[in-house]
Write the structure tokens for this entry.
Amino acid sequence: MAHHEITFPITDPADILKLRAGDEVTVQGRIIGIRDRTQIRIFDQGVEPPMDLSGAFLLHTAPGVRKVSTDAEGRGTYEKVCIGTTTSARMVRFTEGLGEQYGVRAICGKGGFPDVAIEPMQRLGMVYFAIVGGAAALETTQIEEIEEVLWEELMPECLWKFRVRDFGPLIVGIDAHGNSLYHDVQARAHEKLKELYARL
């Protein structure tokens, strides 16, 4: 297992291709919070995202925040309260479009992606980062600032831009070479079940 430090958004696809399933990653730079309603608006309703997603790291989240001010145009400024992750599997159908149409390169959430994500992630040069569920308190300390919030009417499922420092450590759950820790664990579990049933 190797350890990598990567700054997002990335401009060089080689930063993603060097990652292998099981590697550990610490993230610097900026990551984008996204969730179901945001992606439904983009893909099901055909609304272009108002934020550049090229080379982006997307975090599946609907953060707990506190509004501290509103500008002359009605846009809010927010401070973090608790920013954790939500389950990714239900959003797997958006993966191909995020990579193909918008250039997203990394997705992170809780619980992993099923096998249907492996082929498009390999073809498009994307990775899925695993993060420990229930670690929201730690994750929140690694987010230095909420820099931008768009589509506030979807609160809390807006588009969020977070500046992070030493975010992680994360584990590469699915790499851009067709490898998936989730697939491997499921396969080993099925084999173990066969052995157990054979003993009955």
Remarks:
- Residues 3-199 form a domain with the fumarase fold (CATH 3.20.130.10).
